[in-house]
Design brief:
The protein has two domains: 195 residues, Alpha-Beta Complex (2-enoyl-CoA Hydratase, Chain A, domain 1); 48 residues. The chain is 43% helix and 13% strand. With 282 residues, it is of the alpha/beta class. The longest helix has 20 residues. α2 links the parallel β3 and β4. It contains ten helices and nine strands.
Length: 282
Amino acid sequence: MQQNSHNPRNGRGVEVLGTLALAAPKLEEFEFIRVRVDGEIARLTLDRPDHNLLNERMLAELAAGINTLGERSEIKLIVLESAGKTFCGGIELGEYTQRRVFQLLDAFHGAFSAMLDTAKPLLVIVNGPAFGGGAELAALGDLVIATPRARFAQPEIKLGVFPPLAAAVLPYLLGPKHALELVLTGETISAERARELGFVNWLVSEEELPKKVDEVIAKVTAQSAPVLTMAKKAIMGSLGLPLRDGVRNSMKVFLNELAELEDSQEGLRALVEKRAPKWKNR
C-alpha cells in the first residue's frame, strides 16, 4: 500500500477535499468481486483482470461484501479467493490524482477494517502472487491456505513509502524481526518461507488445493456458528494485552456470553451421552 503523509480529513473524520467517498455498493451491483453463498459458506472472489489490482470500487465492494455477509446469522465462514493467476497485485495508484488518492486510501482502510472487525471466521486462499495490499489481504485472514505458486511481498519501501497496515499486523503474526525484514527490504518471499514464518497455515500443491479447501471448510462449519464467533472474539480481543488481561478478556466472553448459549449446553450433553452434537446455532 502506498501512503501519503497529508491527512485529507478534518478533526471530525469528514472528507474536506470536496469529493465524496464511494457509497457502499449492493451485492448485486458488484463489478470486480464475485459473490456466492452456499448454505453456511460465503465466497468472495477477486475478479479484476489482469492482476486483481485494488481500486476504489473494488475495495468498496470488498468492504460491503464482508460487512453484509458478516451480518447473516446462517453464514459460518467467509472464504476470500481470487480468479486468475495473481491473487492480488496490490493497490492501483497509477490512475489516481493526488486529490483522488485520498478516496482510494479511505476505501482501503474501509476494506481492511471490515476484515479486522467481522465476527465471521475468514479463510483466505492464495494461489498466486500477493504483493503490497494483496499480502495484507492474506495477512488478515484468520486461516490461510496457499500453494507453491503463492509469493508474498511488501515492496512499498522501494517506492519511498511504507505499508502502515502491515507494519502493525505483521509483528503480531511473524514477530518483530521477521516483520522488519519484510517491510524494510521489500523482498519477495516464497510460499514455503511464508509457511515457515507463520504467515500461512497450510501449504499444498495446486492439485491438492480443492480437497484441502473443502477439508478446512468442513472442519470449521461443523461447529456452532455463535461459538465460532465467540472463540474468534476471545482470541482477537486478547491480542496486544498482557497475559493476565488477555485471560480475563477471554474468561469474560466465556462466562458472560458462551454460558447462555443452547449450543454450549448441547455440546456438554452430547459429550456425556457419547453422541455427535446437534447444533441449533443459538
